[in-house]
Amino acid sequence: MKNIIIIAAAAENNALGKDNQLLWHLPDDFKRFKTITTGHTIIMGRKTFESFPKPLPNRFHIIITRDRSYTTPYEQCAIVHSLQEAYERAAQEETVYVIGGGEIYSQAMADANLLEITRVHASYEADAFFPEIDPGQWELLREERHPADERHVVPFTYRTYSRRQKSR
Question: What is the model's pTM?
Fold first, then answer.
């Protein structure tokens, strides 16, 4: 596996969600997420998986849970019990996407080489948060701003970060 990419939408205060629900509705961000992740393996925690009505189409899901008795009837899903086990399960993949939640993001930050972040320009009360992005570790490669409009009540910015190379 060459690329471990974290993809997330996080508010200005790093809020991700509350009660296993997103805090905003951004159709263009959903479309971007689908475009980026379709055809790839996605790694997520159990609660993130359970927030979907069913598995996302055209993606292989690796679900991390501490619950050793957890199962899913879906063929396009695998159950593992650690992030390391998720990486081993996806070892043949060129690129995997880590899609949440907060605890999985925190664990994966040390392994990721790219971040695809949608920064939602508001702050929210939440119970799941994205980890801080350390500018000493991450370089902003590009950003694309989106104002609020009739479909998006809050402005947001797509930001792509690359892990900084360690100097010798």
Answer: 0.96
* Alpha carbons 39 and 47: distance in angstroms, whole number: 22
DSSP output for 111-153:
T-SEEEEEEESS----SEEPPP--TTTEEEEEEEEE--BTTBS
- How do strand 3-11 and strand 95-98 relate by DSSP bridges? parallel
Confirm if 159 and 120 have CB atoms less than 8 A apart: no
pLDDT in tens, 76-106: 999 999 999 999 999 999 999 999 999 999 9
Whether the CB-CB separation of 25 and 133 falls below 8 Å is answered with no
User: Which domains, from first to last, does the chain contain?
Assistant: 3-163 (3.40.430.10)
